[in-house]
Amino acid sequence: QVQLVESGGGLVRPGGSLRLSCVASGFAFGFYGMSWYRQVPGKERELVARITTGGRGTKYSDSVKGRFTISRDNYKNMVYLQMNSLKAEDTARYFCVRDYGDTVDGWGQGTQVTVAS
């Protein structure tokens, strides 16, 4: 079955950086788009970034554009989210998901990112 395991979260000061990683298994990784979402308790999940199968196409939410970079390694079945210039409002639990058409799935435990001084 689809399994996605996120890592790399933690506590960071405003202006700092983190790199999130996600390892995929249970499906043909290279044939699927992948996305990162984030969620704050009591709020709806927010799409942060999306990447196409080959990795050349990316899309970002306005709130992170210019600060975050999504990438993938199809040989390692990995997707990454490089987060720079972090702000307090980036504090959330981050999830990577399989993203194809109108469907996203593979929700795992996520990884918590906390931006605070």
Structural commentary:
Strands 2, 4, 5, 6, 9, 10 and 11 form a 7-stranded mixed sheet that branches. Strands 1-3-8-7 form a 4-stranded antiparallel sheet, with no helix packed on it. It is mainly β. It contains no helices and 11 strands. A hairpin with a 6-residue loop joins strand 4 (33-39) and strand 5 (46-51). It has strands spanning 3-7, 10-12, 18-25, 33-39, 46-51, 58-60, 68-73, 78-83, 92-100, 103-105, 111-115.
Would you summarize the structure shown here?
This protein has 117 residues and is mainly beta. The protein has strands at residues 3-7, 10-12, 18-25, 33-39, 46-51, 58-60, 68-73, 78-83, 92-100, 103-105, 111-115.
Distance between the termini: 40 Å
Largest sheet: 7 strands, mixed
Q: Quick one: how many beta strands?
A: 11
Question: Spans of 5+ residues with little confidence (pLDDT < 50)?
Answer: none
Q: Structural class from helices and strands?
A: mainly beta
The helical percent reads under 10%
Based on Cα principal axes, name the global outline. Answer: globular
Secondary structure topology:
Layout: E1 3-7, E2 10-12, E3 18-25, E4 33-39, E5 46-51, E6 58-60, E7 68-73, E8 78-83, E9 92-100, E10 103-105, E11 111-115
Parallel strand pairs: 2-11
Antiparallel strand pairs: 1-3, 3-8, 4-5, 4-9, 5-6, 7-8, 9-10, 9-11
